[in-house]
Design goal:
343 residues, alpha/beta, Rossmann fold, TIM Barrel, 2 domains, 6-stranded parallel beta sheet, 4-stranded parallel beta sheet
Length: 343
């Protein structure tokens, strides 16, 4: 979503932009034929793809004689010094505004773009470019909630105000949460349907329901618009424990919750500083089931402090909630302040 949004910003300025996606085509590498046309090459680096991003930066430098090379993304935000030797400029933070200076001027080094507060001002992602390139099917999301297809993806908020010890969102964005207005969300759904033909929308963001009032207003907008699309979101268990909110969401077409339960043990939840109780987790499962919303669950496993009793509590919680799918994620220690993972 971030890359497509930056593409739309550059295109609106009159720049010609091409997308090279190694998630989609792992055999693609920078070559003189694919890179020499570009005046600027930007590389997105998340921590899971940081090694690959470094290889791309090295290859781009080798294969191009004149292009300015940029790097951005979450890994560039938490570990800019790691990438700086390979790029002319590193963007820390959200590049929605900084991208124009990075492309159009001699700005270099580490550029701290900070946070973008007004998300209504960012452009709609460049889905039309994806469609025109014949890649639209590859950018549709799978979801585990039901058989509805095709599913499009939108991002309507950034950040999370919570302080869970296992999560690196605050290392990248701090604890400020910013969101698009309900009116903008409805407009983007309308545009997503027009451009992609989506029958469902997955709101792929860290904390869709950080503001219950906003969620209620979004539901009102969707009911008025009568888009006829289903949708799913990522939501905390304490928000999903509010039955009135869940009833409203289900009535507005919500068919899926992705919930990070993390553990069914209150001891482990407290250790993670999750700010959620097991009672809220079971209530979230009850509410979702009652109002026709399927659940995808995420757990953290193999924490050094986790006992057999804790694991049994997580299994019991999953037996109670009965999610469509359970992802068990191995615990890793949080990153150091320089952004590199501890061994």
């Amino acid at each position: 979503m971030g890359v497509l949004t930056l593409m739309a910003r550059l295109q609106a300025r009159g720049h010609s932009v091409k997308l090279c996606d190694r998630y989609l085509n792992a055999s693609w590498w920078p070559t003189p034929e694919t890179m020499e046309w570009a005046d600027v090459i930007g590389v997105y680096a998340s921590t899971p793809n940081a090694v690959d991003a470094r290889h791309i930066l090295q290859r781009a430098r080798k294969e191009t004689s004149r292009a300015k090379i940029l790097a951005g993304g979450p890994h560039a935000t938490v570990a800019p010094d790691e990438l700086l030797p390979l790029a002319d400029a590193i963007c820390r933070g959200e590049a929605d505004d900084a991208i124009l200076d990075l492309v159009e001027t001699d700005a270099g080094g580490i550029v701290d773009a900070g946070r973008r507060k007004n998300l209504d001002a960012i452009p709609f992602p460049a889905y039309d470019t994806i469609r025109n390139a014949g890649l639209l099917k590859s950018y549709r999301s799978d979801w585990p909630f039901n058989a509805t297809q095709p599913v499009g993806v939108l991002n309507t908020s950034r950040g999370c105000p919570h302080a869970c010890t296992f999560c690196e969102v605050r290392s990248i964005m701090g604890r400020r949460w910013y969101a698009q207005s309900p009116e903008r969300v409805a407009n983007d759904i309308r545009e997503l349907i027009r451009v992609t033909g989506a029958k469902a929308v997955y709101f792929r963001e860290d904390n869709f329901a950080a503001s219950k009032e906003r969620v209620g207003s979004i539901c009102d907008e969707l009911k008025r618009a009568r888009f006829g699309v289903e949708w799913a979101c990522e939501i905390r268990a304490d928000a999903a424990a509010d039955e009135e909110l869940v009833r409203e969401m289900g009535g507005a077409g919500c068919r899926g919750f992705y919930i990070g339960f993390e553990s069914g043990s209150q001891r482990m939840l407290d250790l993670y500083r999750k700010g959620v109780t097991v009672a809220q987790q079971t209530a979230a499962g009850d509410n979702a089931r009652k109002h026709g919303i399927a659940v995808a669950a995420s757990l953290i496993v193999n924490h050094p402090a986790e006992t057999e009793e804790d694991r049994a509590a997580s299994d019991a919680l999953m037996d109670y909630v009965r999610p469509r799918v359970v992802w068990r994620n191995r615990y890793r220690k949080p990153a150091r302040k320089d952004g590199r993972a501890k061994k």
